[in-house]
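Anyone have tokens for Riboflavin biosynthesis protein RibD? Sequence:
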Amino acid sequence: MELLNDEYYMRLALQLANGASGQTGVNPVVGCVVVKDGRILGMGAHLKRGEAHAEVHALNMAGKDAEGATAYVTLEPCSHHGRTPPCCDRLIAEKVARVVVATTDPNRLVAGQGIERLRANGIEVTVGLLQDEARLQNEKFNHHIVTGLPFVTLKTALTLDGRIATRTGHSRWITGPEAREAVHTLRHRNQGIMVGIGTVLADDPELTTRLTVPGVHPVRIVVDSSLRIPPGARVLNDASPTILLTTERADPAKERACIQNPGVTVIRCGDGPSVDLKLAVSELGKREIGSILLEGGGALNGAMLQAGLVNKLMLFYAAKIVGGEGSPSAFAFEGPAEMSSALELERIAIERYGDDWCVTGYPKPS
Ligand code: AOF
Ligand code: ZN
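Reply: yep, here.
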């Protein structure tokens, strides 16, 4: 009976966390539910980096009644002084009797110490309930906190024959409105959105989040090895930030012109003819961009895949075939000689969006 109850409340905590997805920056999403005698006393979610953690919101709501209660938390309560005081100390101070944790915190400043401290103070702790869901929910945070690199999700719309445009370059639209709306949700859920200069030159996109409900805009990241971006490009001329990734070879005068626009940053990555993508991604990670939606053309997608910098793929297939000898493919890279060396995906999921399908997968480690 207790296990069933536990699962019910942990699911609720996961839902609370999910509601804040996309608005916590490099921080995880976390939900907390405080329960006593079959009654929910407090609920909370971490809503913004630098502001209260989930446990604090839920305990504030529960007030004095938290004594003797059970707290359900989707992530191990923190034990460190970060931007806010440790949550485990607060749970101890409120005399909570039991804490149910979905998964441990991979942040090395916590990493099991939160659980240890709760136990050392006589609190019963259960760990691992709905762990897989909880880990998946924070896959971006888990990657960034451990590697210092952003979690890169490659997203593309493509025809069944793997093309992203017709032989004339025409591409509007491959997928229908439902899939395109889903992409705007993905933009909201990533801190950065990355494209190649080819996309900017061809479409002059805004690269913002346009949803039926308001969303958070990601930082626009343009890979532009020789700063070919035109001064009038939309991504340079609105209030949202844009990062241009270029090389040491780019003309300093062009850089000066670009950074005249407020919100524009230029990062030089390597002195080769094209941007050193490994270096670029690590620079972005250092600037606390913990997640990137890669919406490249075939060349950038291919280069990022080849460099092993893609963590997840979301491929929106339309039931269309365009053929054409030169029509651009979603992945332009040399590719292996043997089928046995193809890049394989694992943990595949397929979802339907209107008339289209999204195939999600993760590159198999080679
Ligand atoms: C929790 N509950 O709701 C969250 C936790 O800089 P701070 O103070 O926001 O701390 C961020 C770190 O705290 C983050 O890297 C992760 O380890 C943990 N996040 N922990 O107990 C929460 N958001
Ligand atoms: Zn905390």
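The chain has two domains: 6-140, 150-363.
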